[in-house]
Write a structure and sequence with these properties.
Length: about 290
Amino acid sequence: MDSYSRETIFHLPGVFEKGHIYMKLLDLYDNHKEYFRDNVKIGSIYGTPLGAIWNGGRMLYGATTWGELHGCKEFMEEHNIPVRFTFTNCLIENQHLYDTYCNNILDIFNNGKNEVICNSPILEKYIRRKYGNSYKYISSTTKRITDKTLQQNEINKNYYLTVLDYDFNSDMEFLQNLQHKEKCELLCNPVCQPKCPRREMHYKNISDCQLKCNPHGVFACPDDRKTFYDAQTTPNFISNFKIEKLTEMGFKNFKLEGRTAVDSDLINILTYYLIKDKYQEEVRKQLKQ
């Protein structure tokens, strides 16, 4: 399957965490369109600079320098692809809103093109008040909205896109009946077990550890070690063939997980969804160099 019949927009993981891979991928995207499946578009690359306390979803420890931040901004502007910040820490309180590092990050990237993924109402309100429409706002799957009515209500809100809870991925009847599919984003390759009872607790644990700069406090989850191959065995996996069915329904935005995956696994994810079959081995080699 070397093409999608309709425009298919992918939102990719690890703009800061995996920048060394995207330096090569975006060069291919600009200069070797023949490698990519027909009708593929890269809609954004998401992630968070290391050490930002507003980060959520995955624990990121360390620090990204000002030089690296400006370099990333210039690189993404050169390729005309938005940066999407995973500012989804669910435990933000008022005192965290004025964190110098996080505010400076949004100041640097405030070019009218970039995006913020939202979870915490207090943080979302603060960013919207400070930056207005300079950023696009995305409702996060980390909100863990599993009620069908509440999920539709979330889509109806003032968000550019809403990332659906991936436990809906296998409910084709629900997806078919959703309104405003153009405002939905589907997570294609979740490694978490379906209906995981610990997922919400895990997000809170990561949020707490991010605020405390404590990477050793994140509880061990067996799903964290799963690979793209493992993800393909779950009912929530969205294959290329399923993407065809979903785009026929009216969906066009698809999110790929993997910002903290090992490089080889992320490369497998990117090539599976983005690259024509006959070029996949060649692209893998180039991305691994």
